[in-house]
Amino acid sequence: MLPDDYKVKLENVFEGPMDLLIHLIKKNEVDIYDIPVALVTEQYLAYLEWIKMLDIDNVGDFLVMASTLAHIKSRMLLPYHGIGDDEEDPRMELVRPLAEYLRIKSAAEALGSRNLLGETIFTRKVKPKEFVDDDQEMIQVGLFELIDAFQRVLQKVSKDHTVEIPSDEVSVKDRMNDIVNIIEEKGSLVFSDLFKATDEKRFIIVTFLALLELMKLNLIRAAQSSQTGIIRLFYQ
Q1: pTM of the full predicted structure?
Q2: Cα separation, 150 vs 23, whole angstroms
Q3: Closest Cα partner for 53 from 142, 143, 141, 140?
Q4: What are the residue ranges spanned by the domains of the chain?
Q5: Three-class SS state of 144
Q6: How far is CA 143 from CA 47, 79, 157, 160, 236, in A?
Q7: Alpha carbons 201 and 207: distance in angstroms, whole number
Q8: For residues 45 and 120, what is the distance between their CA atoms, to the nearest angstrom?
Q9: Which residues have C-beta within 8 Å of that of residue 42, sequence separation ≥ 6?
Q10: Could you tell me the CATH superfamily of domain 127-236?
Q11: Residue ranges of the chain whose pLDDT lies below 70
């Protein structure tokens, strides 16, 4: 867990438990109707630790979903004879609301990506030039993709680098200003370029929290190349 002075309160900004499940399903490349519950539950709990650490406002919703997954996992351990058996596949308790959520989310994103004129008229969306990275399609990313990227950054931190930065020199607010200045100068920034292998771990954590706070304020957005997987940061 992070010390209290490193926490940033993120209220209703990022995705909820359903979005985390979708992220895990995509990450594991599995069918929504054939979810490996044991694997997804294990990975979900790992993300839950990060969510608690980041002090996200709706952590209670994630805990409820964790309980649901644990319950379904326990039911999956009981004998099940498949189609034709009177007992339904326990996973359907999760699949039905998840499928409905995906339909609603898809429709909402399609409408939300257009400019509303009056009540019923929509204009054709033009792809912003700033989202084009060497002619590659850029996909909007959220909290869970950023957590994945941040974990990779932490894995590269040198274990021999033990230089301590005094707490009064590590400020989320200062790092927010630094990030804004960098993006303002360069136009956009690759996520990994925010961090150096020689940076102290606590400084890296503060940098990540500063980025999340900027996204909370809708000042920065993140997009990922569909071909290279590189995450780039832009002004909102």
Answers
A1: 0.70
A2: 16
A3: 143
A4: 1-125, 127-236
A5: helix
A6: 10, 37, 21, 29, 16
A7: 10
A8: 42
A9: none
A10: Structural maintenance of chromosome 1. Chain E (1.10.10.580)
A11: 1-14, 57, 79-86, 109-136, 158-169
